[in-house]
Amino acid sequence: MALSEQEQVRRDKLSRLREMGIDPYPAPLYPVNNTSTKIKQDYTEGKKVIIAGRLMSRRIQGSASFAELQDAEGRVQVYFNRDEICTGEDKSKYNDVYKKLLDIGDFVGIEGELFTTKVGEITVMVKDFTLLSKSLRPLPQPRIDEQGNVYDEFNDPELRYRQRYVDLVVNPKVKDTFVKRTQITTTIRDFYNEMGFLEVETPILQPIPGGASARPFMTHHNALDIPLYLRIANELYLKRLIVGGFDGVYEFAKDFRNEGMDRTHNPEFTVMEMYAAYKDYDWMMDTTEKLLEKVALKLHGTTEVPFGENVINYKAPYKRIGILDAIKEHTGYDLYQKSEDEIREAAKALGLEVDETMGTGKLIDEIFGEKCEHLYIQPTFIIDYPVEMSPLTKKHRSKEGLTERFELMVNGKELANAYTELNDPIDQRERFEDQLKLSEKGDDEAMFIDQDFLRALEYGMPPTSGIGIGIDRLAMFMTNNQSIQEVLFFPQMKPEKKALELNDNEKAIYEILKKEPSIELGALKTASGLSNKGWDKGIKGLTKLGVAKVTKDDAGLTVTLEK
User: Where does the record place the Aminoacyl-transfer RNA synthetases class-II family profile domain (predicted)?
Assistant: First the structure.
């Protein structure tokens, strides 16, 4: 492993510390009794404190030094004075260990007393310190000039998402996002717990990927010698619990869908699903409004929450409009009780790409998604979906061909999906069979038939309403983040490109190619300054690694940089 100059220097310091008998990674408990926040809130002059955290900055001025220590709650100023730390003749702990062998990023424990500087900043006078963990890689260090311009920020998304541990250390706003995410889930739990509902857990590995229309991830269980799927939804298991006698259950579930990735979709995502017996979708809309209003107030103290250029108001009640009414309003096409062919022709007339594998449900979904969805910025319940779009939903009590389903749209995106649940086992079997026909037509997102779930329904499920809320998307909306990657600690990423390990001959040629990616072979050889033997080894090595390619044409031999 090739080390940078700074990394090598830090490893040399590590060795020196060990030679001095200092363990750079000690095992014993360190008796922390204060935090940066507590120190500032409960300040008392001369109070003795023990704190720990990362050394994030320091200004050494001979025998004294001001520094900043960062713990889980923020930063606090600390003051290192040689004579306070080294009360005897031996000053090596300050002169050698602190000044020469500690680095920005090291974890240190500090015992000290509180005082206030002449400019009024609460500070810890260090009486003793302990190295708790030596940092071998330098942290990015943003700099701010006199005009307030920031340089060397750690803001490249690729690096930030891959190295979230660094992102959290150097970008305080990132940590605040994830604190708010936890507050969201805690508020939802409190809301449902107060209603007497039970938080449960259901299987992630499932024999049938049911509960939604999506492409699943597949795996194999060796001991049972059967295929299994990572769940695309937990709906059918939660309904089994309603059959079993629970009146209200909910689960924060990790779901997995083997589909595309973009700024609002990740293949692994978190959803909260809740099911309540003896309720319908009207009750669920009322309850959802109250829940989101409570979440907004908990996080922001107001129901008005900024998101990009918009301000979303989560104050109940929310607008309600049928999906077919929305399509008619925004496209002029009335699709109620129209045939599949008529709907397909309407989609084509609207300029949408459709094919023969798409049934009525997918066609309507495509029309709404492309022509209507983005127009609903404020929270809006899109209700009464066609039967073909809702294989797990009870038919509408008064509107032929529709179901009692809603999707909650916020800022032009779906935030929640809910139904009056279908509890007629015969109707449910027919709906599953219709999904099977779609699968046979080529729809790889059509639902499987879950025979055990049908058996559960045959034992009887009470009237029930259920909902699924996308927690990642809710976190985006509530923290004003435009990308789902910003609210996931470790979003899915493409494999990291392996760093090139080149010898000196290869490096000499590679550096020239970086500046001139396509160059005549003779000119490249001359520019490299290598001997014939060094040149041969270098160019062969680069071509073998796939870094460079040599091609021949009428003009001669040309070397091209490949990666």
Answer: 181-491
**Strand 74-81 and strand 122-133: pairing?**
parallel
The closest of 515, 500, 509 to 550, measured between CA atoms, is 509
Q: What is the pLDDT of residue 4?
A: 85
| Digit-coded pLDDT (tens) for 117-145 | 999 999 999 999 999 999 999 999 877 77
Q: What percent of the chain lies above the pLDDT cut of 90?
A: 80
- Residue 148: per-residue pLDDT: 73
What domains can you pick out in the chain, each with its CATH number?
5-139 (2.40.50.140), 175-318+378-486 (3.30.930.10), 504-561 (1.10.10.10)
Query: How do residues 95-122 score in pLDDT, each as one tens digit?
Result: 999 999 999 999 999 999 999 999 999 9
Determine the 3-state secondary structure of 451 from DSSP.
helix
d(CA 475, CA 455): 37
For the stretch 214-238, pLDDT in tens is 899 999 999 999 999 999 999 999 9
DSSP codes of every residue in 223-278: TTTEEEEE-S--HHHHHHHHHTT-SEEEEEEEEE--S--BTTB-SEEEEEEEEEET
The H-or-E segment that residue 219 falls in is strand 218-221
Q: Is 154 exposed, middle or buried (0-12, 13-18, 19+ CB in 10 A)?
A: middle
Contact 320, 313 (CB under 8 A): no
User: What letter does residue 78 receive in the DSSP assignment?
Assistant: E
**Is 414 assigned a ligand-binding role in the annotation?**
yes
Taking every pair of C-alpha atoms in the chain, what is the biggest distance, in angstroms?
94
Is the N-terminal amide bond of 28 cis, ω within 30° of 0?
no
User: Cα–Cα distance between 230 and 449 in angstroms, integer?
Assistant: 16
The tokens for 68 are: 């900043």
